[in-house]
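ok so I'm stuck.
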Amino acid sequence: MGTLAFPMIGAHTGCDNTPYNTVESFMEGIRLGADVIEVDLRVARDGTVVLLHDDSPYLHEYDYEDLNSLPVRSRISPLYERLEIVRLADVLPIAKQYGVQLNLDLKTTDAIEPCIRLVREHEMAGQVYITGSSDGMTSRNGDFRVVFNTATKLTPEESANYSLFAEKVCREGVEGRYYGLNMHHATCRREVIELAHRNGLAVWVYTVNDPDTMKQLIESGVDAMTTKEVSRLIALKNLSLS
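replied:
not stuck anymore, here's the structure
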């Protein structure tokens, strides 16, 4: 693997076949030894920040207490017939207790302000990274590490002339005062990693489950890698240290 520092390991929600956006998944990421735990965030009608990937009309119709009632939540997903909808307020104390970092993937812009407020209430700004819908965050919350989500696919022009893409996303990252770039692994090449680092930007990649792709990106120098296969990436880390 060379002498590069091993990237931070991010546990994608639902890692190692656990249910998505549940306390079980959160704890499994911690148990496996991930550096960062990812959760997807949306808001209920009353502004309660909840762990949920997909939008639901019920989010806009119900406050959290009613949203989390069995008759309503079971209509969102069969998963919630046996589990409650988790709030960000439920997992922040767990992360603080275990000293693990969080990747708060904001699915909508209306999650920004209640999320920031809650993190500040728990005095955890230095323990979180923000990805997803982060519009305007860097100008209003300079103490938060906001990772800029780049496009998930390259255009034909960008594929043919990758340097244009690399220059564009790095320029956007610098001008937006972002901590780094959050990139789909298929769009991330060594050229953009090196340019980002020269511009003081970290490079995160998601969601990397294939071992060969993991090795390639590790050798290219990415700073963090999000995966559902945490055990597999941990094994590569242990191998690199042996």
